[in-house]
Write a structure and sequence with these properties.
This protein has 17 helices and no strands. By secondary structure, the chain is mainly α.
């Protein structure tokens, strides 16, 4: 089967393609077909990866994305898709490919054998020591990494998971309740408030639990929308990877066989590749950050009027200093 698609018709046509026809176009290296292929199967591939990694690691967007890119490379660059003998059974086949890639990732990092040891290793870390065996970044640098106190606490989802107990012990030692609540609420996207915390917050700002819950529900819906947009950007960044890969291969061909006669085309292609790489870097950088409530939303939860919500930035800066002192003392 051959398809002749113009730019305007292409997306509509690809959406309507059967699995078998889409599979054939991918084998013929049709770029838009590959984009549609990964758009269709991103949820399935990521579900397989998350399930294989387990509950804690599966929550880490960065690690799931790393493995997902490896699956994309295997299917797209290494031609693994050709090993699928039955396109009608593509979903269970992809599930197994993603599962095996996640297992390889775990074995390469000795995660399968060492998972029970992780917590004991964390307990021995100091602020001046490396955050991990393969890292030159210290825990202190992780805490100081961001000028915004809230984002500093949640700069890395992995580090949050590893140091969660120490973070909450440190928060509990902050005497100024306004500071403590600002930092605690900044972690809502990672750790929802417990019923006990809701009761304490209601008491702190003299509101009913019902009103506090209603405000939090509104914030959680807003953060879920932002999380969805972030996930879409992350998926687009993955698609950018193989677009860049194809452009770079074209560039190598031009430089090898046509360098003397296509200088201008080479320059333009280099500029396009660099632009794509910068776009992808921004997407990946944003995907590593945790979603948090806005300053206005935090202000609403700690009793500061909306028109004074700019105070939250200064409160967070002061709160960060208190948090670091408490963290070092834990």
């Amino acid at each position: 089967m051959q398809f002749y698609l113009n730019h305007k018709e292409e997306k509509f046509m690809l959406d309507a393609l059967s699995t078998e026809d889409l599979f054939e176009l991918c084998l013929n290296n049709h770029r838009a077909a590959w984009e549609e292929f990964f758009r269709r199967y991103i949820p399935l591939i990521k579900s397989s990866i998350k399930k294989t990694l387990g509950y804690e690691l599966g929550k880490d967007i960065e690690k799931v994305s790393e493995i997902y890119v490896q699956v994309v490379e295997k299917l797209y660059s290494q031609g693994k898709l050709r090993d699928c003998n039955n396109p009608a059974r593509i979903e269970p086949w992809l599930w197994e490919i993603a599962r095996n890639q996640a297992i390889d990732w775990l074995i390469a990092r000795k995660r399968i054998k060492r998972m029970p040891e992780v917590q004991s290793e964390i307990a021995m870390l100091s602020l001046d020591g490396p955050a991990s065996n393969n890292s030159e970044i210290t825990l202190a640098e992780l805490i100081h990494a961001n000028k915004d106190a809230c984002d500093a606490l949640q700069d890395s989802k992995v580090q949050y998971t590893l140091f969660k107990e120490k973070i909450f012990s440190s928060l509990a030692k902050i005497q100024n309740l306004k500071y403590r609540w600002c930092l605690r609420l900044s972690l809502l996207g990672m750790e929802p408030l417990t019923e006990r915390e809701i009761a304490k917050l209601a008491e702190f700002i003299s509101l009913s639990r019902k009103e506090i819950k209603a405000r939090i529900d509104h914030i959680m819906i807003h953060m879920a929308q932002k999380e969805k947009r972030k996930a879409e950007a992350e998926e687009k960044a993955v698609l950018y990877w193989y677009i860049i890969d194809k452009m770079e291969r074209n560039l190598r061909d031009l430089e090898t066989f046509h360098k003397s006669i296509k200088q201008q085309e080479i320059i333009i292609l280099r500029e396009k590749i660099e632009a794509k790489k910068q776009q992808r870097s921004k997407m990946l950088a944003s995907s590593k950050r945790l979603i948090r409530p806005t300053n206005k939303e935090i202000a609403m939860l700690i009793g500061i009027p909306e028109n004074q919500s700019q105070q939250i930035t200064n409160i967070l800066k002061r709160a960060k200093n208190e948090f670091i002192k408490a963290f070092e003392a834990v």
